[in-house]
Amino acid sequence: MSTTGREVLRRSITGQRRSVTLAAVLTAGHQGGEALVPVVIGVVIDQAVAGGSVGTLLLWLAVLAVLFAALSTSYRLGARFGERAAERAAHDLRLDIGRRVLHPGGGAEAGNLAGELVSIGTSDAKRVGQLNGVLPFGVAGLAGLLVSAVVLLTMSVPLGLLVLLGTPPMLYLAHLIGKPLERRSEAEQERSAFASGIATDLVAGLRVLKGVGAERAAVDRYRRTSQDSLKATLRAARAQAWHNGALLALTGIFIAVVALVGGNLAAAGEISVGDLVAAVGLAQYLITPFSIFSWVNGELAQGRASAGRIADVLNAPHAVDAGEATLPAPAAGHVRLSALGRGALRDVDFEARPGELLGVVATDPAAATDLLDCLGRAADPATGTVSVDAVDLSTVDPSRVREVVLVAAHDADLFAGTVAENFATGPLSEEAMSAAAVDEVAGALPDGVATEVTERGRSLSGGQRQRVALARALAVDAPVLVLHDPTTAVDTVTEARIAAGLAELRRGRTTILVTTSPALLAATDRVVLLDDGRIAGVGSHAELAGRADYRAAVLS
């Protein structure tokens, strides 16, 4: 079932119903008490000042002191409950977005830059969650209006009816005025998220950009994107200013009418001097609830826009569907591709026998990427099948597929923390570290495997990052391991050591090496050559080295 922006809002609020209710009750008590302040002052004038009684004056001053103490307490507690509900709701939304992005079926990243998803999971989630802290104040504003209307009705029916009958049109006009703000807020959030995504990509590829001398082009691209975001933000700011100004003008007119009617009634002797003071005080007080409505309406407009963006991520179709078939446990690791077709791949047929170290050379990088996607079930074949132990992977839940088939991409990222903490699967494997030559990396670092690495491992060299990522993949000890060019950044001596260590460590378990490295291919049992997305040859590295197309891909 698809999730709409309205559903996102509903879940956010109902999930924190208790805290929101408490906040609404407490803030409503605060606003109701605020409305009573001018009433008490009017009573003081009529009963104490006009009567000249010091005792009565002191009594009502004590009542005012108690009232203000209650106002302070109710506001602080109401704001606390509202803020708690807002933060918890935003946290729950971030978890929902995180679960969707990390779902084994994938798909949430389609059409979204990484920075956009981060923006949706942070700023948009915060805006939606904030409504839990905003809505209680809207309820409180209504409570203040009702108390004001009831008090005015007791003073004068015309004054009370004026407030009661005038409030609904004011609220409807506020809703209409908020529509342009909602539209422009959505555009602002989209452009801001896109700018964040571009910035994230540029930072991630900073070294590459410097290496090819593309800094100026990258800066120009970000400047254009940032300017678009700025224009959208300014349009939203103008809409916000127009929205606030229009509501303030409406509120001022309404309050002036209330004060005018009250003044005429006092002049006609229909209400007392104290009632007139209370009526004028209540008219001035009405600025508060209407200001609250203006603020709540603006927050609702922006919250609805953010909820729609969150719903788009939550509704993103999965790249692959869940399956009901299961793989054997333990898996033998017999991989079979039959008439496989997807993207650059054309009618590909080959197998990796249980325990075999199989090399795959793809002359087209796109074919290598499509092959990795199908083997790890990041995508399903358009035609043909990929099976493990005679079970079609497209019929198996993707999370189970990845327990059996581990695909280690060429650009695997490291995480901030120590080198050891990047081995998230459990204790460090000395054998995996040795096979990937990470022991040499640890020896060169000041604190060995306890050395802190920066975000994405940028404090390490390219070769060091590759070796740590390879050791991390080897430590999982998956029945089927698929490696994509794991040694492109290491020197030839280290590469030869890794080839020997990899063959030894993975003995008896299926390993597929998608690479053009002669050192790695020389350690394989067989090599499959993919040219133009089709099988062009199968044999040992030595046998295929006699082919011109193979030499062009591997030895050039």
Automatic annotation (TrEMBL):
<protein>
    <submittedName>
        <fullName>Heterodimeric efflux ABC transporter</fullName>
    </submittedName>
</protein>
<dbReference type="InterPro" id="IPR017871">
    <property type="entry name" value="ABC_transporter-like_CS"/>
</dbReference>
<dbReference type="GO" id="GO:0005524">
    <property type="term" value="F:ATP binding"/>
</dbReference>
<feature type="transmembrane region" description="Helical">
    <location>
        <begin position="273"/>
        <end position="296"/>
    </location>
</feature>
<dbReference type="Pfam" id="PF00664">
    <property type="entry name" value="ABC_membrane"/>
</dbReference>
<dbReference type="GO" id="GO:0005886">
    <property type="term" value="C:plasma membrane"/>
</dbReference>
<dbReference type="Pfam" id="PF00005">
    <property type="entry name" value="ABC_tran"/>
</dbReference>
<feature type="transmembrane region" description="Helical">
    <location>
        <begin position="57"/>
        <end position="78"/>
    </location>
</feature>
<dbReference type="InterPro" id="IPR003439">
    <property type="entry name" value="ABC_transporter-like_ATP-bd"/>
</dbReference>
<feature type="transmembrane region" description="Helical">
    <location>
        <begin position="134"/>
        <end position="153"/>
    </location>
</feature>
<dbReference type="InterPro" id="IPR027417">
    <property type="entry name" value="P-loop_NTPase"/>
</dbReference>
<feature type="transmembrane region" description="Helical">
    <location>
        <begin position="245"/>
        <end position="267"/>
    </location>
</feature>
<keyword id="KW-0812">Transmembrane</keyword>
<feature type="domain" description="ABC transmembrane type-1">
    <location>
        <begin position="22"/>
        <end position="302"/>
    </location>
</feature>
<dbReference type="InterPro" id="IPR039421">
    <property type="entry name" value="Type_1_exporter"/>
</dbReference>
<feature type="transmembrane region" description="Helical">
    <location>
        <begin position="20"/>
        <end position="45"/>
    </location>
</feature>
<dbReference type="GO" id="GO:0015421">
    <property type="term" value="F:ABC-type oligopeptide transporter activity"/>
</dbReference>
<dbReference type="InterPro" id="IPR036640">
    <property type="entry name" value="ABC1_TM_sf"/>
</dbReference>
<keyword id="KW-1133">Transmembrane helix</keyword>
<dbReference type="InterPro" id="IPR011527">
    <property type="entry name" value="ABC1_TM_dom"/>
</dbReference>
<feature type="transmembrane region" description="Helical">
    <location>
        <begin position="159"/>
        <end position="177"/>
    </location>
</feature>
<dbReference type="GO" id="GO:0016887">
    <property type="term" value="F:ATP hydrolysis activity"/>
</dbReference>
<keyword id="KW-0472">Membrane</keyword>
<feature type="domain" description="ABC transporter">
    <location>
        <begin position="308"/>
        <end position="556"/>
    </location>
</feature>
